[in-house]
């Protein structure tokens, strides 16, 4: 199946036919770029209710209010030609088409604002290294296996395994219920993964250093345990683990890292899809 393209919004809204919806779901299981586009669309829709209608600039309103009535002047043939209905219609149509494409391109590459997040790294590390480390489910509401499957569908990775042989043993909502905490282990090594909505607050990453893993920039605090954090599409990911470097890199590579960049055509298509969903919601 080809990429979803402009059908991303229709897929998220459940407007595709039954067969097309099933084909799209199957395609998303193996296409990282389309999965990312679907996740972006879902997060965008969840934030649309907070977007206010823009007001016209005050300077524009003032200039319109201050227009003076000029006396009528004799029009030249060029001016009369410009007032020709067919010519004006053609110009308006061409201008509108260019404006729509330009707007779609801008919307397709736009990023919505999100709250800055400063994960409690020290608390995560302290829990990890405690003599009797608590399960991630002991500090919050337990997430069932079926619920984690649903979270996967909505763009929150809750993989059964990470780094090859680390198996998921628990999942919970922690803090104020806005953080997903997952615990993985192979019986010897452990990896705790935390996911929360927002963008990473980089002003307070004391002790962290910037590194490239899986094609993207992440922040790493070496030691035991190692702490790795980054954000992608308004989601902050934090890993706390005692696995070796190769397995850590493998785990990061299995999670969204923002390494994909859409082309012009895909960006315009994504923008048109978003604009269509806005019109449909109006």
Give a verbal description of the structure.
The protein has 282 residues and is α+β, with helices and mostly antiparallel strands. The chain has 10 helices and 11 strands. It has helices at residues 8-12, 18-28, 32-48, 58-65, 77-82, 85-108, 121-129, 145-153, 245-253, 264-281, and strands at residues 116-117, 141-142, 161-162, 166-174, 179-185, 190-197, 199-200, 209-213, 216-221, 226-232, 235-241. Strands 2, 3, 4, 5, 6, 8, 9, 10 and 11 form a 9-stranded antiparallel beta sheet that branches. Strands 1-7 form a two-stranded parallel sheet.
Briefly summarize what is shown.
This protein has about 280 residues and is of the alpha+beta class.
Task: Describe the secondary structure blueprint for this structure.
Blueprint: H1 8-12, H2 18-28, H3 32-48, H4 58-65, H5 77-82, H6 85-108, E1 116-117, H7 121-129, E2 141-142, H8 145-153, E3 161-162, E4 166-174, E5 179-185, E6 190-197, E7 199-200, E8 209-213, E9 216-221, E10 226-232, E11 235-241, H9 245-253, H10 264-281
Parallel strand pairs: 1-7
Antiparallel strand pairs: 2-4, 3-4, 4-5, 5-6, 6-11, 8-9, 9-10, 10-11
Organism: Aeromicrobium endophyticum
Protein name: Putative zinc-finger domain-containing protein
Domain Putative zinc-finger: 9-34
